[in-house]
């Protein structure tokens, strides 16, 4: 009689201290729904907005958007501690610590600072834990839009013209910042350098609106980017780490379209029901342009030393030229997010996509690679 194979133990980590806490919760709900209970034993770990790690119920319906209300991690379950050798311990007030045992892999579904930016990846590296997603370097570079653009440019990729407003620069060198921004031309987009989901992003039509936009972005990050408002179509492409050490693979190319009710692809357009937004899969662009985008997506993935997955965002200008906008090392991952939809259109459905990412992480060596 054959023994029943043991299930893969996964610590699913979500929530976090960033402004994208709720987006992370929604992503976790989607992944929980896709994990086959016959194959995976899931330990759901939520991180509260204050940074406390707690054992969650792991019910997908509690992590879904309901009637426009966004989910959050409740500060109720026992505190979870990750020790060396991938072991998890739960500590509750007045009770003896409970050993949950080791996990085979961690799936960190965190967006934004303190999760997507290399911080938690460094913790996993120190603890000797395998995890899904890019390592410390790529995660940190992908989170910092300024550093990201420097690496992309060094790889020969065209990026959106921009001005960096470093911490304190607006207060000490305002005239110089204004002069630099003027050279970009109006309008511009002002955004936190290390945030996502369009948090803190403003479109500014002239110099009078720049100060309030910078201050708004600084609520999320003291480091601010001002970018040229590119006239063009918003194009996206997914990339997956190659199987068995092979070359990264690019998905079909998709396009995001939105009507005049949106100045840009903002938080509501991304995550809440909206008739003014449409996704074209695949994008209605010439085959040679789609192939160029796919090649550039893989080049960007490699330029940042990404692993596992990434979504690369582009602008397609009216003259046919393509600019790289951003590389997202942990893109939105709900079943209706662009990244899994791109791969579904490419022949890998949501459950298979999750399986592949976990398998890739399990096959990754610990330490330097």
From TrEMBL:
The protein, known as: D-alanine--D-alanine ligase
Catalytic residues (UniProt): 20, 197, 337
Cofactor stoichiometry and binding remark: Binds 2 magnesium or manganese ions per subunit.
Pathway: Cell wall biogenesis; peptidoglycan biosynthesis
Function: Cell wall formation.
A cellular component annotation (GO) from this entry: cytosol
Family per record: Belongs to the D-alanine--D-alanine ligase family.
Cofactor: Mn(2+); Mg(2+)
Species: Phytoactinopolyspora halophila
Lineage, opening ranks: Bacteria, Bacillati, Actinomycetota, Actinomycetes, Jiangellales
């Amino acid at each position: 009689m054959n023994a029943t194979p043991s299930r893969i133990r996964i610590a699913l980590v979500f929530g976090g201290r960033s402004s994208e806490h709720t987006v992370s919760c929604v992503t976790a709900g989607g992944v929980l729904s896709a994990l086959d209970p016959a194959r995976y034993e899931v330990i759901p770990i939520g991180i509260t907005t204050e940074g406390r790690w707690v054992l969650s119920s792991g019910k997908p319906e509690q992590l879904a958007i309901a009637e426009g209300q966004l989910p959050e991690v409740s500060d109720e379950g026992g505190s979870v501690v990750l020790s060396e050798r991938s072991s998890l311990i739960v500590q509750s007030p007045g009770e003896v610590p409970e050993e949950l045992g080791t996990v085979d892999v961690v799936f960190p579904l965190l967006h934004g600072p303190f999760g997507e930016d290399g911080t938690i990846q460094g913790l996993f590296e120190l603890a000797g834990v395998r995890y899904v997603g890019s390592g410390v370097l790529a995660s940190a570079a992908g989170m910092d839009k300024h550093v990201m653009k420097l690496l992309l440019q060094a790889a020969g990729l065209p990026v959106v013209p921009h001005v960096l407003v470093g911490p304190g620069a607006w207060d000490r060198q305002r005239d110089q910042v204004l002069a630099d921004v003027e050279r970009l031309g109006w309008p511009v987009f002002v955004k936190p350098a290390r945030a996502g989901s369009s948090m803190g992003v403003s479109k500014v039509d002239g110099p009078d609106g720049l100060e309030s936009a910078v201050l708004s972005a600084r609520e999320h990050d003291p480091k601010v980017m001002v970018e040229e408002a590119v006239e063009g179509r918003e194009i996206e492409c997914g990339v997956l780490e190659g199987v068995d050490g092979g070359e990264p693979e690019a998905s079909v190319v998709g396009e995001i379209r939105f009507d005049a009710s949106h100045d840009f692809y903002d938080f509501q357009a991304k995550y809440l029901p909206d008739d003014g937004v449409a996704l074209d899969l695949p994008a209605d662009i010439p085959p040679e342009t789609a192939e160029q985008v796919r090649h550039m997506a893989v080049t960007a993935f490699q330029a940042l030393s990404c692993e596992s997955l990434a979504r690369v965002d582009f602008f397609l200008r009216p003259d046919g030229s393509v600019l790289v906008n951003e590389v997202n090392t942990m893109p939105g991952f709900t079943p209706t997010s662009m990244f899994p939809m791109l791969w579904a259109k490419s022949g890998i459905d949501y459950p298979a996509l999750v399986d592949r990412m976990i398998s890739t992480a399990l096959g990754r060596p610990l330490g330097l690679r």
